[in-house]
TrEMBL record:
It catalyses: 3',3'-c-di-GMP + H2O = 5'-phosphoguanylyl(3'->5')guanosine + H(+). It comes from the Bacteria. This is PAS/PAC sensor-containing diguanylate cyclase/phosphodiesterase. Residues 203-255, 323-375 form the PAC domain. Residues 407-546 form the GGDEF domain. InterPro entries: Biofilm_reg_signaling, EAL_dom, EAL_sf, GGDEF_dom, Nucleotide_cyclase, PAS, PAS-assoc_C, PAS-like_dom_sf. GO terms for biological process: cellular response to nitric oxide. It comes from Thauera phenylacetica B4P.
Length: 810
């Protein structure tokens, strides 16, 4: 027995639980090894001491109080105590059991105690409490309802900041499965969220809807499975967030986008939009039809031609920079050129450019219709010429321009003679053909900028702007009359029988540019003149203005007389002597005269211009050259005259004849005139057109020995560089400079300059129109070597010239 007690005592001593026994006064009677270890004292140091001597006062007081309670209560006291033991910095928790001890008489005999270390459990408990607090705080802060559902979707509990956030009153869903509360499809969505959460650990984004009295409400679920112990059924935390507002916004956006799409897709325009990177982010069906699928592509990726692409790139660049552009472009669609009106503009979000968009509207058809309308409104459908309205418009414009610029113009009113007869005999179709052809001929007779219009029926109007006097008007009117007089080849009847039709025109001319005149008044004048032409037997041109008419008539007469003059050889040549510094005759200039049967001897000033205009100068010039060559040949045979040169004026028109050089060569041959004695006087105007041909022609003649003088030098605009290239031998100072050489310093300077220039270019210079000794002296002082003018002799017939020559030589 004694051994057993000893073994028990040894075992208690070794137990890894602190065990102690105290006497009724609280003195330790026993402390096992671990108790001594924890107090870090030797057993002998502990035994006989009280808690007050071993522990901090507060702990000691508590321990004594527990002991006392056990003794008083006569039953064990179990307390949890927090002890900070020496050598252990952290708090330690112990579960102490205080067993009161009694002697045989039942009197208190002390306390036996043991303490179990519950520090770890206590720490867990603390953490759990903290976690619970956190959880509660999170739940508190949750803006959305949180449900706990089982795997069948039964609501086990819920928590919500407000019942308004619930899809239904709690009474409706608490303890119920989702299928009992929601329509099948929505319930299935919820269950699917639970299944997914069970499978992968969470589920987010599943949306179900509820048709509530106030309208449809949407909820988005976030589901997480709850932790469970073995054998526990699966439960889920389900967060249900109401997203009705977002859904409504999405829906509104979708509706708007659908609306926009519907509009954009059904509007007959191309629509596209690009993001900031230039990629196409939207296109409508029409854009796709024209350009193919552009989505994600940039400008240039869809096979446009380089210029189109460059143009677009530039427009896009400007739109990205914030500009809105409206433009009209033309490009090819399915091999056909079409016109598009385009808008390119920035897409702004809160003021910032986030991309660009554009519309391209195919306006080809509209343009065509507009053109058609314009043509119908302003052009005669038969001939395509401007109609009366457009003619009036142009006439008003011409009148104001001529008033502003001080230029002259005329209006021709043209009526086809006997046109009605053609209509009656060959039908309207033939008449129409003739009118169309007449329109074409009218247009061919006028310059660009002039107007030929059809007033209606067989009446046409031609507006000639900026003309040089009545002569030019008459020339064009005559040309028109001649053009219309050419035969018309028409097809008549069903068989298309060919008919040749001749018509003539009566033309009335009204002039404008001199004083105020309205369009209506001008037209009325032309109309009056046109009736005069009709009255004069048709096929005629009549001018409204009597003075004008007189001038035209006079010109017409002169023209006829000129023709007759050529036929009946009414021309003569007079010769004006040319002298050197010592006033010795060195030659003559042949000058044309016309011995008119009624008007007497006429100087060229009265007819040479008309001869030029009408081309009659060509045969006249030929006669002059031939006569001059004969004269030269005669001079060549006599020693007194063999050295003389003969200068002959050649008009521009005559010189431009391609056959001119051959003609001169043939004349030299046929007459035997010495070429080196012949001098052709050309004016600057003959030389400016078609420079290369002129030079070539001059060189061909120069090669024969013929010399060239440049007449009227200084009055034209020829560049010196060009003149240098011409094979000239002489410059002629125009008489206009010589006339005032003594009184006008400018003319003196010009004369001096021409002389210096001639010397520099190696050209002889002759001064014409020398009338006084002073002029002669001045020119001589400037180095002039040759002269012509009344001072030395007037133009005279050959007999007179030769007599004067003999006298001078004699
Ligand atoms: N006031 C004044 N006048 C003088 C004096 N000396 C000569 N004249 C005139 O000046 C003109 C010189 O001829 P032009 O400059 O070749 O100017 C010529 C020439 O351009 C042209 N012309 C004359 N004959 C012909 C010809 O056969 N063929 C061509 N194509 N044109 C000719 O007609 C123009 C005028 O010829 P004309 O009336 O004969 O007038 C001549 C002549 O009579 C003078 O001291 N004082």
């Amino acid at each position: 027995m004694k051994d057993d007690n000893a073994r028990l005592r040894a075992a208690i001593d070794k137990l890894r639980v602190p065990i102690y026994i105290k006497d009724p006064q609280g003195r330790y009677l026993y402390a096992n090894e671990l108790a001594c270890e924890l107090l870090e004292r030797a057993r002998a140091d502990i035994l006989g001491r009280t808690d007050a001597e071993l522990f901090p006062p507060e702990l000691a007081r508590a321990m004594q109080a527990h002991d006392q309670r056990a003794l008083t209560g006569r039953e064990p006291v179990i307390v949890e105590e927090c002890v900070r033991l020496a050598g252990r910095p952290e708090m330690n928790w112990g579960l102490s059991i205080k067993q009161p001890l009694f002697d045989e008489d039942g009197a208190p005999d002390g306390v036996a105690g043991l303490t179990i270390d519950i520090t770890a459990r206590k720490r867990d408990e603390h953490e759990l409490v903290a976690l619970k607090n956190d959880y509660a705080a999170i739940l508190q802060a949750l803006p959305d309802p949180l449900f706990v559902l089982d795997a069948e979707g039964r609501c086990l509990s819920y928590r919500t900041p407000s019942e308004d956030l619930l899809a239904a009153p709690p009474s409706l869903f608490m303890g119920r499965r989702v299928h009992e509360v929601l329509p099948p499809a929505e319930a299935e969505t919820c269950l699917e969220a639970l299944r997914e959460a069970a499978r992968v650990g969470h589920s987010t984004g599943k949306v179900f809807r509820v048709d509530a009295p106030g309208g449809t409400r949407w909820f988005e679920l976030s589901v997480a499975p709850m932790a469970r112990s073995a054998g526990e059924p699966q439960r889920f935390n389900v967060l249900s967030r109401e997203i009705t507002a977002r859904k409504q916004m999405e829906q509104a956006l979708q509706e708007r986008e659908s609306l926009l799409r519907a509009v954009v897709d059904n509007t007959p325009v191309e629509y596209w939009a690009r993001d900031l990177q230039g990629r196409c982010i939207m296109q409508n069906a029409m854009t796709a039809a024209h350009w193919g699928d552009l989505l994600d592509k940039r400008v240039g990726d869809s096979g446009e031609s380089a210029p189109v692409s460059a143009d677009w790139a530039e427009s896009n660049r400007r739109a990205y920079a914030g500009e809105t552009l409206h433009k009209e472009v033309e490009y090819e669609v399915d091999g056909e050129r079409r016109v598009f009106q385009c808008l390119v503009a920035p897409i702004r979000v809160q003021g910032e450019v986030m991309g660009i968009f554009g519309f391209n509207q195919d306006v080809t058809e509209r343009k065509r219709q507009e053109r058609q309308i314009h043509e119908l409104a302003f052009f005669d459908p038969l001939t395509g010429l401007p109609n009366r309205r457009l003619m009036y418009d142009r006439l008003e414009h011409a009148l104001s321009t001529s008033a502003r610029r001080g230029t002259e113009g005329v209006l021709l009113l043209i009526d086809l003679d006997h046109f009605k007869d053609l209509n009656d005999s060959h039908g309207h179709d033939a008449g129409d053909q003739l009118l169309v052809e007449a329109g074409v001929r009218l247009n061919a007779c006028i310059r660009q900028g002039d107007t030929a219009a059809r007033l209606g029926g067989d009446e046409f109007v031609v507006i000639l702007e900026d003309i040089e006097g009545v002569a030019q008007a008459n020339t064009i009117a005559t040309r028109i009359g001649e053009a219309l007089a050419r035969p018309f080849h028409l097809r008549c009847g069903k068989d298309g029988e060919r008919v040749v039709q001749h018509v003539s025109a009566s033309i009335g001319v009204g002039a404008f540019g001199r004083g105020e005149l309205s369009a209506a008044e001008l037209l009325r004048r032309a109309d009056t003149a046109m009736y005069q032409a009709k009255a004069a037997g048709r096929n005629a041109i009549c001018f409204f203005d009597p003075a004008m008419q007189a001038a035209v008539t006079e010109r017409a007469t002169l023209h006829a007389d000129l023709r007759e003059a050529i036929r009946s050889r009414q021309f003569e040549l007079h010769y004006q002597v040319q002298v050197d510094t010592r006033r010795r005759p060195v030659g003559a200039e042949a000058l044309l005269r016309w011995r008119h049967p009624h008007k007497g001897l006429l100087a060229p000033g009265g007819f040479i211009e008309l001869a030029e205009e009408t081309g009659l100068i060509v045969p006249i010039g030929h006669w002059v050259l031939e006569t001059a060559c004969r004269q030269l040949a005669r001079w060549a045979q006599r020693a007194q005259t063999a050295h003389l040169r003969l200068a002959v004026n050649v008009s521009a028109r005559q010189f431009r004849q391609p056959s001119f050089a051959d003609e001169v060569r043939a004349l030299l041959e046929s007459t035997g005139a010495p070429a080196e004695r012949l001098k052709l006087e050309l004016t600057e105007s003959s030389l400016i057109e078609d420079a290369e041909a002129v030079i070539e022609r001059m060189q061909a003649l120069r090669a024969l020995g013929i010399r060239f003088a440049l007449d009227d030098f200084g009055t034209g605009y020829s560049s010196l560089a060009y003149l240098k290239r011409l094979p000239l031998t002489q410059l002629k100072i125009d008489q206009s400079f010589v006339r005032d050489v003594m009184s006008d310093p400018n003319d003196a300077t010009i004369a001096r300059t021409i002389l210096a220039l001639g010397s520099n270019l190696g050209l002889a210079v002759i001064a014409e129109g020398v009338e006084t000794e002073e002029q002669y002296d001045f020119l001589a002082a400037q180095g002039c070597r040759d002269y012509q003018g009344y001072l030395f002799g007037r133009p005279v017939p050959m007999e007179v010239f030769e007599a004067a020559l003999a006298q001078a030589q004699g």
